[in-house]
């Protein structure tokens, strides 16, 4: 029997070379059978950790007991409004305590969360609400003016209106709301027309009314829909990735298994402080929020990470252990004069994702903090889980790491054939965390999957003999110069190491001779940096056809609300 098990283990390692490089204690699979739904996971975790702190925002703490009570009340209130089972409820909130209450309440009531970017334009909001069929929305009053423009174009019947100070204590909360409304003037005027039986209810009133109501069992299963997570829509209208309870539970358990070796160094789970600066409506931060709930650790909520000075002031207040971010966030912190005053002695994981991490930023971060940047890769369609470098790594690898427990990764050609290791092709992923499909788009869903059940990601990569994968680039961002493929990520990674460069981005523009020419956009760190300096560096580091034909300096590069550099906007303006 032992010999047979050893043989099976050897065969698995040959088929999945990454398994041999797992840190000690990380399992090859995760057990989903322990939960019948994500709602059960939430309820058990909230009650098990009742006496622990869950979050701190603007120096006001919320316990797991409070999160349990408030989310149960909101869920009961939603049920009392007569929403049908599985109804879609939108959440349009920044990183404030109301987000977790709304998310947990919606799920526990048996409904589907539709996460909405609070900075959406009216057009973007109208599309997402209409496409999802949302019949209720929980929204911060700061963004109500956008909703007012499109409400009558949607199926929304219930608007739960939150204020910034809700859940921050009676007197302090009222002061914060007053300051946001009247001193900072961050609530633009709006008028919500409540025609057709629509109702408007203040967030705290919904909670108060819900406390007097029972929360009925939702009868959800692992196959029920938990989230409609909309993609960025870089190639047109955004699509809703259908994430089931099974998908999300798998992602939580996969992340827990992977991060455990590093977070164990922090000791008791209740001590672990995760910095939630990335927006919780984004799948990266959302999954880490759910991971914190599962483990009973706490979050430091950063409502506005763009105010880097205030962000750093929060970092200085108490030790922190897990700092997730995108490359631009790490870069912004590094450039701030107060950054060196932060105590990084307790930092266990600097988790990079959401976009390619540059070697230049990674080197500076490691030097400044003593904690290496660990890069991972995932998508909205995979609950942010896919691959990650071992959290026990002592240096930046420049790869996206290894597939997490229970995940298969394959490099395939356009016909869906798996390519040998070392050959470039499309990264395809299969696992329990991968979406069920795109909401009400069967044709798009069919195009997204191969015949053997792998999801096509649109990323081009190469896997080595050890199971580590390196992303070359996105298919659509590839530049074709005189018949040669040029990948912007490679150029940007090289140029990021050029002395005097803060940030950069490369795109292809039409060229009558070469088909496409490379245009490089650069943000200076050194004001004395010249085009000749950059061009000379590129000549030294890049082969001829990879060198930029045009170099343009910018004060800043266009970015999404998550911090991704938007190459499409650079292309549009060139």
Topology:
Blueprint: H1 2-15, H2 38-48, E1 53-57, E2 60-63, H3 64-80, E3 88-92, H4 97-108, E4 112-115, H5 122-132, E5 136-140, H6 144-150, E6 158-162, H7 170-183, E7 199-202, H8 203-210, E8 225-230, E9 240-244, H9 245-263, E10 273-276, H10 283-295, E11 298-301, H11 308-315, E12 322-325, H12 327-335, E13 349-352, H13 359-369, E14 373-377, E15 387-388, E16 402-403, E17 408-412, E18 425-430, E19 437-438, H14 442-448, E20 455-463, E21 469-474, E22 479-481, E23 484-486, H15 488-495, E24 501-511, E25 515-524, H16 531-541, E26 550-553, H17 567-572
Parallel strand pairs: 1-11, 3-4, 3-5, 4-8, 5-6, 6-7, 10-11, 12-13, 13-14, 25-26
Antiparallel strand pairs: 1-2, 8-9, 9-19, 14-15, 15-16, 17-18, 18-20, 20-21, 22-23, 24-25
Helix pairs in contact: 2-10, 3-4, 3-8, 5-6, 9-10, 12-13
Explain what you see.
The structure is a single chain. This protein is of the alpha/beta class and 574 residues long. It is built from 17 helices and 26 strands. The model is unreliable at 4-11 (pLDDT under 50). Helices cover 32% and strands 22% of the residues. The N and C termini lie far apart (65 Å). The strands form six sheets. It has an eight-stranded mixed sheet, with helices on both faces.
Distance between the termini: 65 Å
| Spatial order of strands in the largest sheet | 7-6-5-3-4-8-9-19
Describe the main β-sheet briefly. Answer: 8 strands, mixed
The DSSP helix count reads 17
Beta-strand percentage range = 15-25%
State the secondary-structure class. Answer: alpha/beta
Q: Return the average pLDDT rounded to an integer.
A: 93
Radius of gyration: 24 Å
What is the global morphology?
globular
Low-confidence segments = 4-11
Query: How many strand elements?
Result: 26
Portion in helices? 25-40%
């Amino acid at each position: 029997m032992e010999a047979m098990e050893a043989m099976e283990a050897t065969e698995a390692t040959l088929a999945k070379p990454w398994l041999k490089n797992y840190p000690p204690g990380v399992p090859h699979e995760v057990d989903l059978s322990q939960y019948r739904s994500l709602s059960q996971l939430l309820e058990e975790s909230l009650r098990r950790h009742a006496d622990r702190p869950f979050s701190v925002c603007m120096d006001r703490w919320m316990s797991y007991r409070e999160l349990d009570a408030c989310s149960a009340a909101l869920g009961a209130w939603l049920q009392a409004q007569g929403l049908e089972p599985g109804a879609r409820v939108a959440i349009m909130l920044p990183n404030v305590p109301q987000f977790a209450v709304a998310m947990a309440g919606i799920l526990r009531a048996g409904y589907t969360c539709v996460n909405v970017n609070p900075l959406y334009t009216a057009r973007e909001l109208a599309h997402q609400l209409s496409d999802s069929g949302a019949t209720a929305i929980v929204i911060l009053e700061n963004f109500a003016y956008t909703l007012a423009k499109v409400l009558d174009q949607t199926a929304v019947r219930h608007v739960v209106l939150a204020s910034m100070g809700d859940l921050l204590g009676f007197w302090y909360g009222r002061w914060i709301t007053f300051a946001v409304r009247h001193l900072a003037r961050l609530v633009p005027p709006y008028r919500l027309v409540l025609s057709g039986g629509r109702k408007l209810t203040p967030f705290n009133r919904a909670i108060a009314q819900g406390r007097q109501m029972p929360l009925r069992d939702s009868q959800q299963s692992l196959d029920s829909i938990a989230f409609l997570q909309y993609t960025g829509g870089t190639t047109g209208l955004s699509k809703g990735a259908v994430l089931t309870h099974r998908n999300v539970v798998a992602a939580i358990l996969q992340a827990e298994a992977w991060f455990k070796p590093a977070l164990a160094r922090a000791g008791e789970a209740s001590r672990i402080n995760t910095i939630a600066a990335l927006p919780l409506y984004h799948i990266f931060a959302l999954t880490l929020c759910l991971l914190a709930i599962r483990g009973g650790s706490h979050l430091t909520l950063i409502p506005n990470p763009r105010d880097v000075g205030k962000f750093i002031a929060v970092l200085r207040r108490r030790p922190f252990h897990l700092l997730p971010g995108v490359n631009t966030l790490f870069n912004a912190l590094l450039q701030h004069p107060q950054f060196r005053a932060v105590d990084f002695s307790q930092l266990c994981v600097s988790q990079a994702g959401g976009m390619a991490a540059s070697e230049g930023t990674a080197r500076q971060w490691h030097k400044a903090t003593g904690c290496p940047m660990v890069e991972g890769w995932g998508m909205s369609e995979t609950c942010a889980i896919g691959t990650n470098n071992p959290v026990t790594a002592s240096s930046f690898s420049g790869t996206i790491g290894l597939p997490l427990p229970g995940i298969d990764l394959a490099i395939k050609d356009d016909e869906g054939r798996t390519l040998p290791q070392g050959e470039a092709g499309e990264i395809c992923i299969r696992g329990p965390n991968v979406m069920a499909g795109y909401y009400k788009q069967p044709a798009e869903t069919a195009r997204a999957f191969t015949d053997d059940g792998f999801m096509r990601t649109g990323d081009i990569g190469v896997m080595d003999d050890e199971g580590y994968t390196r992303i070359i680039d996105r298919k659509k961002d590839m530049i074709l110069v005189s018949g040669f493929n040029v990948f912007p990520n490679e150029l940007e990674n090289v140029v990021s190491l050029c002395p005097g460069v803060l940030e950069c981005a490369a795109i292809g523009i039409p060229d009558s001779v070469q088909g496409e020419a490379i245009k490089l956009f650069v943000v200076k760190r050194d004001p004395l940096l010249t085009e000749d300096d950059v061009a000379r560096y590129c000549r030294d580091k890049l082969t001829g056809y990879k060198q930029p034909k045009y170099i343009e300096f910018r004060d800043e590069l266009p970015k999404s609300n998550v911090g991704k550099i938007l190459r499409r906007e650079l292309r549009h303006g060139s």
